[in-house]
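Exercise: predict the structure of this protein bound to FNR.
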Amino acid sequence: MSKVIGIIAGSLRKESFSKKIGRVVQGMAPEGFEFSIIPLDDLPIYNQDFDDHHEVPPSYVTFRETIRALDGVIFITPEYNRSVPGVLKNALDVASRPYGKSAWTGKPAAIFSNSPGNLSGFGANHHLRQSLVFLNMPAMAQPEVYMHSISKDFDEAGNMINEGTRDFLKKAVDAFITFYQKNA
Ligand code: FNR
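Solution:
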């Protein structure tokens, strides 16, 4: 049976570059792997009362089950104010609870950060890395995946037009598969 790697983009935006990168990455799954895009659109902001008072939103139940069923995760994050966008942090929080029942535990992960600017989401990349340590998710250290000037890599229709970026992504995906096999 194929191993299932979740692709989680930290943006809700329809024309999100992170989502576009996610779709390119999805097409790079090697034999024996399925890359599955996990949307974050339906997750209300985490409120511990939901869990403490048995009022868990149905979308949380579905999301937690979806994450639990994954074998690994590729996070594709933009940067908001030098950190992880709230929507992605919220997703981490939702599936990390209730206490002691985190759905993330032990799943190998990769972090691909991006920005239309020059700094490539460095701050978001490393803030996310910090959360993954606590969530007990081994995160690929090398290659680091920083993608700058990302808006130039796609045409109007959302196709990746920079072959250098595509090759860079393919090498990162291949490295992650090797990392996954050592850490699963
Ligand atoms: C941004 N943006 C941004 N970019 C960056 O490189 N560093 C940053 O700290 C920020 N901060 C920031 C805050 C907020 C609230 C917004 C809305 C945007 C710009 C951001 O990189 C750009 O909007 C991306 O296109 C967002 O990613 P998606 O939606 O294209 O995946």
